[in-house]
Amino acid sequence: MRTSWADSVSNSAAEIAISDKNSLPRPTRSTYVPPHLRSGSISDVSGTVSGTNGGSRWTGSDGGGTKPELRHQGQGNSYATAGRDAAGGGGRNNRSGGWDRREREVNPFGNDDKIDDIKQNFSEQENSGINFDAYEDIPVEVSGENVPPPVNTFAEIDLGEILNQNIRRCKYVKPTPVQRHAIPIALAGKDLMACAQTGSGKTAAFCFPIISGIMREPYAQRTRVGRTVYPLGLILSPTRELSCQIHDEAKKFSYQTGVKVVVAYGGAPINQQLRELERGVDILVATPGRLVDLLERARVSLQAIRYLALDEADRMLDMGFEPQIRKIVEQMNMPNRGVRQTMLFSATFPREIQRLASDFLSNHIFLAVGRVGSSTDLIVQRVEFVLESDKRSHLMDLLHAQRENGNHGKVSLTLQQALTLVFVETKKGADSLEHWLCMNGFPSTTIHGDRTQQKILKRVVSAYPCPDSHRTWVSHTERELALRSFKSGKTPILVATDVAARGLDIPHVAHVVNFDLPNDIDDYVHRIGRTGRAGKTGLATAFFNESNLSLARALAELMQEANQEVPAWLTHYASRAPYGGNKNRRSGGRFGGCDFRREESIGKNLDYYSGGNSGNAYGGLVDIGGGYAPGVTSAWD
Ligand SMILES: Nc1ncnc2c1ncn2[C@@H]1O[C@H](COP(=O)(O)OP(=O)(O)OP(=O)(O)O)[C@@H](O)[C@H]1O
């Protein structure tokens, strides 16, 4: 039976004795529950909660409509507290109550997970291909009050042994710049607005502190009341692919920590997601639309949220998503800013969006890490003048050259690795180009966000060229399959709309083609950022013509800033073009990525430092009014 949101919230609020969303009561620490006792009912060992759920260690009823009988311990709230985990070290909460998750948890690392192998030092490990030299001189700006110093190694951060093991399993040798700065800030409980270049490891930068924080929280055995679950962490992202990717990453990071991560996204049947939620959730990764649905069905409550992260935050707060985000954050009983911890991450952060975002933040720290991909030559950017009518044949030429030469300058392409991502403006255009490519001997697939038709065309790669009989229509729920087919190299060309522009981390994308340029330079930054990730090189080619005039100036500036060759004709277009390409981002040719508070509050007591990443940049904090340290330029200014 569907219960109204308001009813459900008020009922459950009464039951779990969370009387004030801004003063979430914290239970006392419970006694340690030895692993051999964890298989039974929680009440057997802690006397905290009665009722089991088919073997789940989640508290609450079995979803049959009976309210769980929650007994309180200590401060009179409903949170059953978990014991400490000896293996976790450092007094961490292992979050194991009624059953030991570690026995049932699927190993997200597959077979590549021999503890003996991973017990080696970080320094002895295989570097996962990241080019750390490229990061050494990245300009960094930080502003805010009491900024914790950055770290140089994971060992310097107290994340706990289990999380450290997972970091080793991921083959992360040392933190990327955004991780060096953001993780200590987040662990200090500060709100954070972080801008860092595409492919620089932002996902881990917000996941590690959330997972670690939940493991540390003494109070937070997760609670389910009736069918409503109460996650502690919420990560919002704009697309289902990105949500799934964050979920996959977060599951790796949280492996064997007892912290349960669940994903919910639209365009897929809700029932399976509901079942998964009923099994328990500590961190919910979600797209806004589906989350609102779950909140309105009272299947999720945000009352217990301690950590809120918005990935691609500028996208989440632009006109498309802002109303939903406001609803989620401000009208759905989530603890207020200042009570919860809020972290916003993106590679781009227009000034207007920063201003808007400050509604969700409390006394936040602003962090900007220069964009590795575009400020170095890791992504080689080319722009070619191509008339609309010539685009297809030009693309064909590029693909033939790529196939024959097997390389693009610095970018070595093997057959399996030569993945090419082609961005187009419309869904129809994507389907049409994919069909044409396929008919011309280039196995392709497509991905776009058509929610009404909810179908994508997937071609069988062996059909070469693809006859109609080999074409397979797959349902929208299989959009991920198209992505998988691309990732695996079965269909090494993916024609996509902007739905694939942000966040997706696809190894071996060597070439991004902007068949149709976007209207906004920030979208261009995100699109080309699908290559040249984690220190690897990449190539980005853009087809420009008169219809892209409004982007000319922003594009020329961006390329220049990234030390790219700007064709004379583009400079010419730029000089006579009105300023466009993102009204919010720049004014007077300046990047708008720096802390907007600096401009609006000169003289406020904000710490501020800027400089490279070599360590000496932190020698002295300068007052915000002092601007940049002498001789230091920022990628954001
Ligand atoms: N410390 C690290 N060492 C090695 N690889 C890392 C490290 N941190 C992250 N990575 C890898 O770098 C890649 C990019 O990371 P991630 O997807 O988090 O980037 P991002 O900054 O969120 O990019 P985008 O702006 O496009 O969303 C991933 O494959 C990730 O596994």
From TrEMBL:
Family per similarity comment: Belongs to the DEAD box helicase family. DDX3/DED1 subfamily.
InterPro entries: DEAD/DEAH_box_helicase_dom (IPR011545), Ded1/Dbp1_DEADc (IPR044763), Helicase_ATP-bd (IPR014001), Helicase_C-like (IPR001650), P-loop_NTPase (IPR027417), RNA_helicase_DEAD_Q_motif (IPR014014)
Region (Disordered): 1-116
Gene3D superfamilies: P-loop containing nucleotide triphosphate hydrolases
Keywords: ATP-binding, Helicase, Hydrolase, Nucleotide-binding, RNA-binding
Annotated Polar residues bias: 1-13
EC primary class: hydrolase
Top-level taxon of origin: Eukaryota
Ranges spanned by the short sequence motif Q motif, renumbered to the chain: 152-180
GO molecular function: ATP binding; hydrolase activity; RNA binding; RNA helicase activity
Residues of the Helicase C-terminal domain: 394-574
UniProt protein name: RNA helicase
Domain DEAD-box RNA helicase Q: 152-180
Biological source species: Gossypium anomalum
Keyword RNA-binding: yes
